[in-house]
Specification:
two-stranded parallel ribbon; 58% helix; alpha/beta; 2 domains
Length: 433
């Protein structure tokens, strides 16, 4: 085993160890949506969600048996993390970058700092991007086909990255040949056929365009905190200043365009693709001070581990309390459950589904849409046997959900009575009149 291979294996193992020991977030959508689809729910028509049909539902999503939390969904997350590290490292080696293992170490530290322990859409985008950067230019037909396919997959996951993809195409000096166009077109056509086959094209446009424009952009806005602004500036400003001073404007625009998906709802995980782009771009411009960076990285990793082991939360969304609530629900008869403000994993864990073939995410920007609220109320009305589970003092962005539930909250208050308290949840059933 060569020296580089040893360091590669060691660093990837270190990265996975930090995540597993420190705790991780496996976003419930990856488990819930495939589960609902397996029970007859259709994206957009039955699963009210504004994301594009790519990973959490649609023709390129995982089957339900591969998204069960924690296993094998955790395996998917670890595999994505390891492969992203691998392709980033190989792309640096291919470019002849000195000390690629140090660049990989810094990437591990910085990406972990920016919510790298979270499995979300950006986890896949970063993986796709790492492969794109490794493949380089499309000199061979199979490379051109693969690049087009990957570009299309990124676009389907995050359409707001379209400007970034154009700039990346130019930066990589790719060729718009027949193979690239074919690869790019295939996922789009497959997705269109999927939407057409299930007659959900109009629902798709309503959610991904109209709803995003009129509700998500207005009510889901989340501005960065002062701490987030400072930390983001420390990482993003120096590379931008370096490229501007050297009059290399294309890399600067690449970085800026990669930041677009972080808005209007700012969260660190949305910056993961931008971070990878920064590391790839800056690696060709700077020489790392190895003697300085290694101690800093070791100190930061030690701090991460100490902090997370001291306040260890393990698998955040699959905590013991959720398992106990699910067990209590399974002991009750019935198939329907409506969860408000709680953990959506309770649906698959209790082997129940939302009533009326209608899943409405427990988020204020969905509740504020009267058409969606009425649809949820209709589903409860036509399924009087459905139980309602409400988490005590649940908050979203620091605001108690009781102030955001609108028509749905009023309907439950007027028509349901509390029958049991399970952990920090209240269980309600319909008042028989």
């Amino acid at each position: 085993m060569g020296k580089k291979s040893f360091w590669l294996i060691f660093l990837i193992s270190l990265h996975l160890a930090v995540i597993l020991l420190g705790g991780y977030f496996l976003s419930p959508e990856f488990t819930l949506y495939p589960y609902l689809v397996s029970r007859g729910f259709l994206p957009y028509a039955n699963i009210i969600d504004q994301h594009f049909p790519s990973l959490i539902f649609g023709p390129f999503s995982f089957p339900s048996w591969l998204t069960t939390n924690p296993q094998p969904l955790l395996t998917v997350f670890c595999s994505l993390t390891a492969l992203t590290d691998l392709f980033l490292f190989l792309s640096l080696v291919r470019r002849g970058i000195r000390s690629p293992q140090i660049w990989l170490l810094v990437w591990i530290v910085v990406s972990y700092w920016f919510s790298g322990n979270t499995l979300w859409l950006e986890s896949f985008i970063t993986f796709y991007l790492a492969i794109i950067l490794f493949l380089g230019r499309n000199h061979k037909p199979i490379i051109g086909l693969s690049l087009g396919f990957l570009f299309s997959l990124v676009l389907l996951v995050k359409p707001t990255l379209f400007p970034f993809l154009i700039l990346l195409f130019i930066y990589q000096k790719l060729i718009l040949d027949r193979q690239f166009i074919t690869g790019f077109t295939l996922p789009l056509l497959i997705t269109l056929l999927f939407l057409t086959k299930f007659s959900i094209l109009s629902d798709f446009f309503n959610l991904t365009f109209t709803f995003n424009r009129d509700y998500y952009s207005k009510y889901a806005t989340k501005i960065p905190s002062l701490r987030q602004i400072i930390e983001t500036s420390i990482v993003f400003l120096p590379p931008l200043l370096i490229f501007v001073r050297r009059r290399k404007y294309l890399p600067s625009l690449l970085i800026l365009s990669a930041i677009i998906p972080a808005f209007p709802r700012f969260e660190y995980t949305h910056l993961q693709p931008a971070l990878l782009a920064i590391f790839f771009l800056v690696a060709g411009e700077l020489s790392l001070a190895v003697s300085f960076l290694i101690p800093i990285c070791i100190i930061l990793l030690t701090f991460f581990l100490y902090r997370n082991l001291r306040h260890n939360f393990g698998n955040f969304y699959l905590d013991k309390q959720t398992l106990r609530v699910a067990a209590a629900l399974k002991s009750r008869p019935g198939n329907f459950l409506f969860v408000m403000g709680g953990n959506d994993l309770l649906y698959p864990l209790s082997n129940r589904v939302p009533p009326g073939l209608t899943y409405l995410p427990p988020l204020p920007w969905y509740w504020k849409n009267e058409a969606f609220a009425q649809k949820a109320i209709l589903s409860l009305t036509t399924s009087p046997e459905a139980l309602v589970l409400i988490k005590n003092n649940a908050t979203i962005d620091g605001v108690n959900i009781d102030k955001s539930t609108g028509l749905i909250g009023k309907f439950i208050k007027d028509n349901y009575q509390e029958i049991e308290v399970i952990e920090n949840y209240r269980l309600y059933q319909r008042i028989l009149k």
